[in-house]
């Protein structure tokens, strides 16, 4: 590793010292995620709040906590005397895969589930099953024949369901009576688990759901026999065998997912899901009416409720399931000529039977229909977070740099839509009874406030470390499209000090915004690069959420052209406002989609971009998964031109600028094959470039030495490439 270069001599000594320590802090805190409370569950009476969190901003072990009567109490400590004394098992492969999909960076109690009253809590620890009660007592291990994944108590707390070796089991809460409810009926079949696409691209992480009475479960059966395999190995450990990952790449077969009603007594009824959409389904050059995706499922007091989506993603049906016969009835249907956007938390059915579903309330706003009442036009809904009685809570933004918590009482419509959160920033919530746990990220930091009947009643501690660099972003709205941007300048830079090389550090892809009124890890990283002597520009352009349907779907059929255009327009508009930006020295860095964008920037616009760092770049769109990639580009056999236009392999010969390619060798989301094939194409074209393989790293780089060293290597490469 090259020795770290020093910050420019004009920086104050204390700023230089803090900036030099930042990469290690960034890595040690796992992107400042350690010590942050998360996964809140509020009891129906609002008296108790469960969550997981470590004990400090550098503690990588998550504990289970209870907030009650204004105080926190630890319920389960994986490194404490009782839990740590038990023989240590291995985390099951299915749980490791779930954590990778969730981008989980800690160990210990990383997930849990409760009974309806939020009194009994179940969790898995290194493959063993544990339960603990909120009203007293120590954690208690329940012994099972095999390793445990995703344990969930029944609503009354008498049973705990779990998955082991692909089979769904139950055990009594006292540890007796283990029973197998659904066992694999094929070599590549599992019950009770979610498939790769549902976890990674759809957002459905669960594979089974209890009935409210606790007498039955709605269970997903997943058959991956027809799915092509990828093999992930660790070249640094050549004696370890590769692991096989069923990965449905664009245009290839998906896993077959079916649903089944399984009684605790042993009877089983198949859910008769519709096989294809009807005549209302939008036609197109590629039309696939088959319902291949189960995008959501649940079971409330009125029965099971399921959503299915067609392979071409242009139809979504919400289905009511008859729990006696397994028959289904369409309760709501949505169609779109591009793709139907999936709104997390929907559909939601209230006790009255009223549905909350995704809708376009006016113009091209992405909103909700709550029991027949649309959200106001211009309010961009992000997620439904829950309901209490007839009141629905959701997050939405009026301005794309903020997200607030809102509520609407379907049983008291005269109250209208009420904004729950106040301060500028990004807020979300968990609800139960009269209690709202308001999770708020603002420019001042991160807080978690417990509201009771709308009044602050306490706080849950956020123990994350404060970054060693102090972000000082300049808020900009650039060009004719009013591109929301943030410009980060060195703290030591003063007008007249001279030009600064420019580093673009966007994400700019579907489903994520970086230009937000928050202080979070990417804001700190942008400021750190600024302290190294760059002017750092971050822009959310077309394709990102929060600015309407047309804005988000401007990338349909072409994932690069409009996105790159917006980055270039923002760069030029920012330079017009800030002449210190040196347009003769411009680079882009990014990871995942923005890594792909960075590589495209130097290939397609070398007159603008003079260097790039492309991490985990999805170079060949044919290698990405079905649901994600076909959403934008369609089927590769029908639209080969879409995939050719958006894949960079054939453009390797155009490289004339310095390019560093970085990739984790254990990445099962964006396979390292993207980078290796691109590097081979660059070599064949005689184009010099740098390749940095990260041994043992997945899509999220969490190893401390690797993550800290990577920031320094990026900095040194960019400095050298831009002559800084």
Helix segment tally:
12
Within the largest sheet, what's the order of strands? 37-38-40-39-41-42-43-44
Mean pLDDT: 94
Strand coverage percent? 25-35%
Give helix % range. 10-25%
The quaternary state of the protein chains shown equals single chain
CATH architecture of the largest domain: 3-Layer(aba) Sandwich
Mind describing the biggest β-sheet?
Answer: 8 strands, mixed
Terminal CA distance reads 19 Å
Secondary-structure class: alpha+beta
CATH class bucket of the largest domain = Alpha Beta
Round the Cα radius of gyration to an integer and report it.
25 Å
Tally of distinct domains: 3
List its traits.
Rossmann fold; globular; eight-stranded mixed beta sheet; single chain; Methanol Dehydrogenase, Chain A; alpha+beta; 724 residues; Neuraminidase; 3 domains; five-stranded mixed beta sheet; 12 helices; disordered N terminus
């Amino acid at each position: 590793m090259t020795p770290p270069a020093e910050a420019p001599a004009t920086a104050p000594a204390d700023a230089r010292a803090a900036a030099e320590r930042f990469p290690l802090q960034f890595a040690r805190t796992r992107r400042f995620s350690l010590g942050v409370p998360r996964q809140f569950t509020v009891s129906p009476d609002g008296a108790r709040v469960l969550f997981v969190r470590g004990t400090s901003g550098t503690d990588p072990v998550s504990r289970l906590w209870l907030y009650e009567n204004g105080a926190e109490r630890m319920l389960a400590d994986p490194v404490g005397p009782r839990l740590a004394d038990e023989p240590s098992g291995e985390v099951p492969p299915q749980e490791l895969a779930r954590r990778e999909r969730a981008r989980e960076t800690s160990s210990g109690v990383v997930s849990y589930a409760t009974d309806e009253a939020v009194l009994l809590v179940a969790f898995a620890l290194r493959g063993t099953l544990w339960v603990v009660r909120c009203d007293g007592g120590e954690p208690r291990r329940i012994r099972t024949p095999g390793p445990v994944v995703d344990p969930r108590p029944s609503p009354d707390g008498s049973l705990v369901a779990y998955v082991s070796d692909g089979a769904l089991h139950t055990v009594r809460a006292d540890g007796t009576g283990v029973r197998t409810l659904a066992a694999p009926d094929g070599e590549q079949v599992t019950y009770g688990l979610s498939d790769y696409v549902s976890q990674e691209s759809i957002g459905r992480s669960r594979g089974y759901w209890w009935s409210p009475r606790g007498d039955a479960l709605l269970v997903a059966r997943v058959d991956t026999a027809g799915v092509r395999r990828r093999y992930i190995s660790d070249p640094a450990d050549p004696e370890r065998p590769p692991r096989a990952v069923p990965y449905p790449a664009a245009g290839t077969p998906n896993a077959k997912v079916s649903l089944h009603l399984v009684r605790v007594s042993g009877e089983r009824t198949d859910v008769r899901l519709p096989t294809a959409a009807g005549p209302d389904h939008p036609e197109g050059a590629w039309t696939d009416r088959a319902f291949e995706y189960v995008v959501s499922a649940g079971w409330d007091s009125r029965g099971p409720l399921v959503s299915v989506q067609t392979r071409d993603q242009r139809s979504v049906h919400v289905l009511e399931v008859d729990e006696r016969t397994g028959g289904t009835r369409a309760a709501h249907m949505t169609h779109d000529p591009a793709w139907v956007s999936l709104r997390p938390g929907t559909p939601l059915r209230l006790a009255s039977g009223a549905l909350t579903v995704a809708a376009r309330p006016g113009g091209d706003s992405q909103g909700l229909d709550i029991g027949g009442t649309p959200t106001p036009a211009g309010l961009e809904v992000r997620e439904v977070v829950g309901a209490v009685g007839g009141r629905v809570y959701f997050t939405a933004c009026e301005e794309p740099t903020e997200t607030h918590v809102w509520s609407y009482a379907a049983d008291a419509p005269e109250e209208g839509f009420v904004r729950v959160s106040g301060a500028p920033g990004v807020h979300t919530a968990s609800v139960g009874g009269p209690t709202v746990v308001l999770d708020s990220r603002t420019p001042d930091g991160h807080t978690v406030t417990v509201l009771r009947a709308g009044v602050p009643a306490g706080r849950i501690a956020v123990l994350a470390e404060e970054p060693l660099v102090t972000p000082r972003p300049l808020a900009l709205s650039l060009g004719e499209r009013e591109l929301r941007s943030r410009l980060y300048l060195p703290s030591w830079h003063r007008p007249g000090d001279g030009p600064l090389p420019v580093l673009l550090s966007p994400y700019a892809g579907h489903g994520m915004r970086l230009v937000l009124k928050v202080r979070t890890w990417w804001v700190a990283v942008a400021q750190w690069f600024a302290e190294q002597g760059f002017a750092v520009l971050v822009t959310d352009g077309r394709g990102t959420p929060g600015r309407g349907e047309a804005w988000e779907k401007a990338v349909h059929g072409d994932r690069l052209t409009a996105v790159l255009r917006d980055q270039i327009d923002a760069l030029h508009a920012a330079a017009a406002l800030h002449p210190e930006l040196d347009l003769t020295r411009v680079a882009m860095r990014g990871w995942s989609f923005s890594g792909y964008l960075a590589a495209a920037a130097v290939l397609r616009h070398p007159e603008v971009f003079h260097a790039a760092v492309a991490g985990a770049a999805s170079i060949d769109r044919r290698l990405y998964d079905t649901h994600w990639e076909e959403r934008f580009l369609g089927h590769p056999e029908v639209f080969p031109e879409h995939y050719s236009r958006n894949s960079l392999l054939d453009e390797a010969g155009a490289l004339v600028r310095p390019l560093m390619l970085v990739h984790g060798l254990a990445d099962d989301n964006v396979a390292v094959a993207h980078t290796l094939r691109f590097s081979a194409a660059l070599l064949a074209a005689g184009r010099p470039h740098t390749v940095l393989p990260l041994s043992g790293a997945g899509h999220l780089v969490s190893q401390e030495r690797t993550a800290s060293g990577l920031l320094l290597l990026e900095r040194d490469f960019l400095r050298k490439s831009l002559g800084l």
